Amino acid sequence: MGAATSATSAATVVATSVAFGVGARLLRPRARWTPSAARAVLVTGCDRGLGFSLAAHCRSLGLTVFAGVLDAGSPGARKLGGLGVHVVPLDVTDGRSVQGAVATVQQALRNDPQLSLAALVNNAGVLVFGEFGWQTPRQVSLQLDVNLAGTMNVTRAFLPLLRRPSPDGPGGSRGRVVVVTSHCALASLPALSVYAATKAGLQAWADALRMEQAQYGVPVVQVVPGSFTHLSGILATHEDHAREMDEAMTEEDRQFYGDYPRRFHEYLSVVSDMGRKASESPTKLPDEKLHSVFEDALLSLRPKERYVHEPWRYTLYHTLMKVAPTGVKDWLAIRFASLPSFKEK
């Protein structure tokens, strides 16, 4: 009887907490801190695509922006420099490079006592398109090192600066960690197994980090951006990756797969060409809703744990993936990806 009563009481507490939590979220005002040059944001992976777009947008809001770039001489880096963005060489897989970026931001904070680091936006990422059985160990390690370990290393290095109270923030507010994940973390797709694994890992890591850092006043926010692969430049090097996969194939692989890998990579050549053009002349992404979502993640005094930006078909797809049986899920994922398929001889 006592155990049953305790269980009932616990269930009541949980249900009440959930109800209050949902109500508070629905009624919560969208209070924001005001963007100003006294607030700094560091964005990683700004040579092109989403990182370039976010750095440019944050600068247009009046924030002080540090843009981490792999190549300080890239078209994206030069464009951002012309906008008044502080371009910082940053290879997230290189400890010395990460410490150099920390030192750059730290020096800027020393030079201006009113300046604080308001946010670290972990955006840098690498995507290799191809079946797991085709990808080389180097390609697998590259994605793990950049997307997952690199994000962790950069975050660890910048946490001391993020923990510092902002001189002009409400209640001595501290900086926050923003983690860019992916729709692939919500539902994996064929030919993106390694990329999806890194993004799912980031999601799990960010969930735990959010709970750890809450006691220090450092919010951890996830953003799942929409589909803009053709504009991001993330597939700009697909042909190089395809060549590496092809050269690593054994004679047995070639006999088994036949022309499947060739058809697969040729199918992606159009997106690859668009990616190269996006890299050669990066521009701000033409999606104001996406930028608005990131503004909420950056500026909200009480940010949500996860912001998802997606077209309606993504919403429908992910809803179906939650309730459908395995066979239907697999069929949906294959249809959603719309990639060439293997034809057995």
From TrEMBL:
<dbReference type="GO" id="GO:0016491">
    <property type="term" value="F:oxidoreductase activity"/>
</dbReference>
<dbReference type="GO" id="GO:0008202">
    <property type="term" value="P:steroid metabolic process"/>
</dbReference>
<dbReference type="InterPro" id="IPR002347">
    <property type="entry name" value="SDR_fam"/>
</dbReference>
<dbReference type="InterPro" id="IPR020904">
    <property type="entry name" value="Sc_DH/Rdtase_CS"/>
</dbReference>
<dbReference type="InterPro" id="IPR036291">
    <property type="entry name" value="NAD(P)-bd_dom_sf"/>
</dbReference>
<dbReference type="Pfam" id="PF00106">
    <property type="entry name" value="adh_short"/>
</dbReference>
<keyword id="KW-0560">Oxidoreductase</keyword>
<protein>
    <submittedName>
        <fullName>D-beta-hydroxybutyrate dehydrogenase, mitochondrial</fullName>
    </submittedName>
</protein>
<comment type="similarity">
    <text>Belongs to the short-chain dehydrogenases/reductases (SDR) family.</text>
</comment>
